[in-house]
Write a structure and sequence with these properties.
It is built from 10 helices and 10 strands. With about 290 residues, the protein is an alpha/beta fold. Strands 1, 4, 5, 6, 7 and 10 form a 6-stranded parallel beta sheet that branches. It has a two-stranded parallel sheet with strand order 2-3. A two-stranded parallel sheet has the order 8-9. Strand 4, helix 5 and strand 5 form a beta-alpha-beta unit. Helix 4 packs parallel to helix 6 and helix 4 packs across helix 10. It is globular. The N terminus is likely disordered.
Amino acid sequence: MKYSFLTLITAGAILLSSCQSKSQTDSSTGKDSTEKTTQTSENSKAAAIDVSKIKVADAKTILARKQVPILCYHQVRNWKPTDGKVGKDYIVEIQNFKDQMKMLADSGYHTILPDQLYAYLNTGAPLPSKPIMLTFDDTDMDQFTVVRPTLEKLGYKAVYFIMTVSIGRKGKFVDYMTKEQIKQLSAEGNVIGSHTYDHKNFKKYAGKDWEEQLDKPTKKLEEITGKKMTEFAYPFGLWNAEGIPELKKRGFRMAFQLSTKRDEKDPLFTIRRIIASGYWSPKTLSNSIKNSF
């Protein structure tokens, strides 16, 4: 099913209702330099993991491991008068986002990527102290112009879940990343994951939907990055057990929902995330991380 761009913009507005100090001091100072060096070392370890040799553990083993905090962000921009009360929950203002990231760094959190999470869940492979995964949904341009440089200063890496219908589009409410920008994020050591063609509810897929929402977007992202797509994020965080075999058939190894209970048979395909609310201060975010995971 293909939407017109006008429909996409309308859907984008609906999606928002569903789904302080400087952020970084001079990198030449001792503390920040040490933090970035430590995180860079952890990134190097992540790149060295050979996941092809990992045997998938049984569900009970995976569920018994302590969950890694995973944050889900959407738009990172300043609020506008037209933003509704619910929509603001999905829009983190720029300075607040920078302050949140600084809080994570100051608190000793180290970002991890899917290979590390996969190895940990299946084999118990060690993770850095205070691991956390940062994920960004929907291809929004501010994830490249605001998020990328903010994370780069801290040595942080992230996962970007791309909705392919929007690639390169400019809209009334939001602009979207280009193919070149997505490729650059991947080349810089971030991970690109699939987030369907146009954000259609995964629970409603039937017939041609599997081709339109999974096969074609996967092929396009693999052409852009030159890398196999192995991670998937459910639109709106909604999933059903009946659809998980379709993800497995297509070579996905992990799928990410939002905050509902993990599936007892397929925990790797129902990994939990929490949405980082636009209303949260860094302190509130810190407390939410501790309480949720």
